[in-house]
Amino acid sequence: xxxxxxxxxxxxxxxxxxxxxxxxxxxxxxxxxxxxxxxxxxxxxxxxxxxxxxxxxxxxxxxxxxxxxxxxxxxxxxxxxxxxxxxxxxxxxxxxxxxxxxxxxxxxxxxxxxxxxxxxxxxxxxxxxxxxxxxxxxxxxxxxxxxxxxxxxxxxxxxxxxxxxxxxxxxxxxxxxxxxxxxxxxxxxxxxxxxxxxxxxxxxxxxxxxxxxxxxxxxxxxxxxxxxxxxxxxxxxxxxxxxxxxxxxxxxxxxxxxxxxxxxxxxxxxxxxxxxxxxxxxxxxxxxxxxxxxxxxxxxxxxxxxxxxxxxxxxxxxxxxxxxxxxxxxxxxxxxxxxxxxxxxxxxxxxxxxxxxxxxxxxxxxxxxxxxxxxxxxxxxxxxxxxxxxxxxxxxxxxxxxxxxxxxxxxxxxxxxxxxxxxxxxxxxxxxxxxxxxx
Amino acid sequence: xxxxxxxxxxxxxxxxxxxxxxxxxxxxxxxxxxxxxxxxxxxxxxxxxxxxxxxxxxxxxxxxxxxxxxxxxxxxxxxxxxxxxxxxxxxxxxxxxxxxxxxxxxxxxxxxxxxxxxxxxxxxxxxxxxxxxxxxxxxxxxxxxxxxxxxxxxxxxxxxxxxxxxxxxxxxxxxxxxxxxxxxxxxxxxxxxxxxxxxxxxxxxxxxxxxxxxxxxxxxxxxxxxxxxxxxxxxxxxxxxxxxxxxxxxxxxxxxxxxxxxxxxxxxxxxxxxxxxxxxxxxxxxxxxxxxxxxxxxxxxxxxxxxxxxxxxxxxxxxxxxxxxxxxxxxxxxxxxxxxxxxxxxxxxxxxxxxxxxxxxxxxxxxxxxxxxxxxxxxxxxxxxxxxxxxxxxxxxxxxxxxxxxxxxxxxxxxxxxxxxxxxxxxxxxxxxxxxxxx
Lengths: 439, 439
Fold this sequence. Notes:
homodimer, alpha/beta, FAD/NAD(P)-binding domain, 2 domains, five-stranded parallel beta sheet, FAD (chains A, B), NAD (chains A, B), NDH-2 (chains A, B)
């Protein structure tokens, strides 16, 4: 009898976790991703704020799977999946499968707000974070030369939309970059005029955290120079301004700015719907508690794309990793003729870094930490979870360096060529300085 | 009396050296470069061969000049220089100068050989090296999936044209990458079929070195698996083949390959001629021994762009650095009413790394070293010359890591968006895998 063939689409946390769980089995596994590297997404904001090199939060997928001869990898873009005939169509071939794990992740959600797609910088992948880094430095380079007052003010105003973990972490890091490092680079700029604004539609930051942690996060950000506006809903974004209204008083306001960063919403990768799966309002695929698609019991959905019935999991790396393991174990059970088992999620908690010596952590839903201890824990956990030892050494070196020197050294304008087409088109800059939309 | 204003165009070795020599003087200096970073060019080949991250061989220019309040920097593209009215025209403004230092460097020279510009990968700047890295890894990704034998062979053949320092270093590093690291990544590829070919038009490699060092370099490369062909002149390059003839027997031969790397020639940046300066056959500006342009005594040419009368300097970093210092000192003398002095070049030697424990070094034109000692010296000197301590730590970490693990971890396909327009257009890849010419 031939070995069963499992195909995994997507090499994020869930896909890699699923592939690794097949180690030592007699199943033939093929992992597909459009990139040849795995990205450690929780550190994207540190790439965007000149703290880390993009190469330090990614790892070649072939390296991650070196010890597993039964797992093959191919850099390939999946065009279509035929769930009935169990065949995947890529750029250059057709791949049949016995079992399929879909781990295509999520993408930014813009809620149809005018101008968001066209003018905002998302922060969902490596290209996004490098684009954002280039944009931030570029704004300062232009502002330094700009004679017109209001145009200079636009260049020096950075608005972050979304007060969840990504928005809070980015706001803190950005404030540190600007008021800690860039202030020494641009003597001609009056840094009292540089604004970092954080707009949150809900009534508090970090809605999933206990109230006193949200309050702590807001106070810390304000101390660092961030203008935090809660209950502030964005209504429109234009090339040089963001419009928002106060949720209580409904009065409309404007912030003139060149850089609007969108961290306010996330939805499942639209390919799932395109390929014919049933998705919820959020673009996620509704699956059984075993992570199987109801119509196709040999197809599993894991990670941000999965919406298990009657359950709501946070979009966190540990969830994706546990789902990857569950899917693999269930496939192995199916191959042996046993019934797949529902996933049992163990919530380990969540943490958000705000700045130097400042973070919040909620462990196992019970223990709450703030300040120095939470900050140390955040650093330790993220270092430990990085995909390779080599990544750990370089990231640690960067952190130690910037801690003692108060300097962020990756403040380079080094545009990446975008390769990510199914996610929202990021904005970039051309070499002659014009901002362009890349389609 | 107002301070004299000096403008320096180009922040390579010569430009940075000139700017730094103005430290502590009362001259107002403006340094212009199209990038906001300085590139340590001698390590480009290690970026191209997955050994170093691109960010580790560059340094923000503002950081390099932090301690010098009299030196301003602007990221700007110079469009034109009017040497008569002493005005520089950039993208967005006119900049008058009292003294000008032109340090615009060099670019690849293609000698009008058909197809070289269109199909070869140059290795003259950071974008080039990242493009080349992506291309090398991409060829292996495609070859792994390619069923057609001859097409697979084309993908797995890498031809380097030019047996000077760049060509030899790249050939050695590429052989180490392929036969040391990639061999573990691609189990489906027969690595006995992978070819690295080095074509040198002259009769020996490293023509500027003593004969026995050239012989050593050739023997080492051959041991590492590189096919070295001397007296082999390229006559044409096509998309999937390079044509060359033996200089002695004049018989024409072909190597089918997808990747041809051009390191065979260098000429002065063409902007000098475009702006009306008198250049020699090699595009370099003929200058007085004081580095002044004969027609415009307040204009200095330094680095690869300068061709001092009656003298021939190698295109090396130490030459550029000494020329930058000379130009600055001569300007300071002119301001004080003294005569500029001719440059006195002190040759410190040159070194070429070939591979692990293998290098050649010629010190002060007298002492010749090969093997382990030369290799250690090469590493030490290049580490010491890196622009910042932080660069040194990261590069050292990478070197130590890859020495002990025999692994090159930056084997990523992470396309850079090219920003360098006045240098030859590099080739890149699009996200759907087609090679494209970027104009």
